[in-house]
Amino acid sequence: MTWLEVDEDSGFGIENLPYGVFRRDGTDARVGVAIGDRVLDLAGLAGAGLVEGRGWFASGTLNGFMAAGRAAWTANRARLRDLLTDPAQRAAVSPHLVPVTDVELLRPFEVADYVDFYASEHHATNAGRIFRPQGEPLLPNWKHLPVGYHGRAGTVYASGTPIVRPCGQRKVGPSDAAPSFGPTLRLDIEAEVGFVAGTPSTPGRPVTPRAFRDHVFGFVLVNDWSARDIQAWEGQPLGPFLGKSFATSVSPWVVPVAALEAARVTPPAQDPVPLPYLRADEPWGLDLRLEILINGGSVSRPRFERMYWTAPQQLAHATVNGASLRTGDLFASGTVSGPTKEERGCLLELTWNGTEPLELPDGAKRAFLEDGDTVTIRATAPGANGTTIDLGEVTGTIRPANC
Ligand code: MN
User: Mean pLDDT, to the nearest integer, of 320-348?
Assistant: First the structure.
């Protein structure tokens, strides 16, 4: 129990303690931890000698602390728990608690590289049916390796950053028509979960599933904004490019791997059995319950536990060729979709490529996003001791195109 008053059903209790970067009027950006409806200012705590790492926490990004490695993460988490549960520390710690409503939450880390996977069997099957109605929905490689691509790190934005509708080449009308240039007519979301690397790895040395906790700092929510018309035309044969690279949004709180240990569940059975480098000796499904809201109305509730490829398998695959990790590398899961319509993680699936418009709770209809629409993805997970872990939310509003 913490001496701080935290709502019983708050997902930001003592078992969570996610890290973020915040700014108050007139102060520099600094690292904080969410507790209840407050942010605990770690730069302030370090300045008062209550935690180690003033340099990390005053730097305005999590990268320094993430690079410090697992021993530092574990020690800091234990120290914060002590400070927040020992009543004798209350007078010393209280001055460093700020109401979350008084701060601006920034992008929590500098993104080094960005990889996006395609790990949901339900999403990959639906997308295959939509884009290749004649063929098998899953391509032959899909159950042998976690399919992915390298995305654009420089356009990963903080939650709340407005999203300008991208322009590009797209086909309007019959499929044999010449492409035209203009704003995307099929702007979409992808509800995803990402993990971020802290400890770098050695070039030429793959990172095994067993070493996941040594390298990965934590998890965030990701919205991989997508222009489906641009994507469909440009993506043959090399895959996602400008239809994805204009913007990706991440949630402000990085939930430590340790906070999600109680959410680990057995993932879906894998058939065929993956090659040895992709085998994990622990269950790494994660029981994260996502919800997608458009203009405040709930439209879908995807379950992350249904993902076919797990995070440690993704990390092992991304490094099996010897590609090394850098602090700040972001790995997103791919769209999280389930077997029912209520669990689909993007409008492409929810509206079947626009052919079955979605009725929003306010009665409006959508095939794809319109200017002014706000999309929010949020998630919770079971935490230790019967608690709930809140992953917070990632949100963004569509602005008109500039072309
Ligand atoms: Mn994606």
Answer: 98
How far apart are the C-alpha atoms of 381 and 259, rounded to whole Å?
Answer: 10
Q: Count the Cβ atoms, other than its own, within 10 Å of residue 275.
A: 12
- Active site residue ranges: 123
Torsion over CA of 226, 232, 234 and 239, rounded to 10 degrees? 70
pLDDT digits (tens, 9 = 90+) for 45-103: 999 999 999 999 999 999 999 999 999 999 999 999 999 999 999 999 999 999 999 99
Write down the H helix ranges in 147-305.
212-215, 228-234, 242-245
Q: Are 100 and 393 in contact (CB under 8 A)?
A: no
Residues 15/255, Cβ–Cβ less than 8 Å: no
Q: Residue 204 CB: number of other CB atoms within 10 A?
A: 10
Using the mean position of ligand 1's atoms as its centre, give its distance from the Cα of residue 149 in Å: 9
Q: Which two tokens stand for residue 101?
A: 């409503």
Question: What pLDDT is stored for residue 8 in this prediction?
Answer: 85
Cα–ligand 1 centroid distance for 11 (angstroms)? 26
Q: Are 192 and 221 in contact (CB under 8 A)?
A: yes
Question: Residue 175 pLDDT > 80, yes or no?
Answer: no
Domains of the chain and any CATH numbers: 19-105 (2.30.30.230), 114-399 (3.90.850.10)
Instruction: Find the 190 Cα to ligand 1 centroid distance in Å.
Output: 6
Record the pTM: 0.98
Q: Tokens 């700092």 sit at which residue?
A: 217
User: Cα of 51 to ligand 1 centre, how many Å?
Assistant: 38
SS3 sequence of 50-98: CCCCHHHHCCCCCHHHHHCCHHHHHHHHHHHHHHHHCHHHHHHHHHHEE
Decide: 40 and 33 in contact? Cβ < 8 Å. Answer: yes
Q: Ligand 1 (ion): which residues have CB within 5 A?
A: 116, 190, 224
* 235 Cα to the center of ligand 1, angstroms: 14
Phi, psi of 313 (to 5 degrees): -65, -40
Alpha-helical (H) ranges within 177-289 are: 212-215, 228-234, 242-245
Provide the mean pLDDT of the chain. Answer: 97
Burial class (CB in 10 A: 0-12, 13-18, 19+), 102: exposed
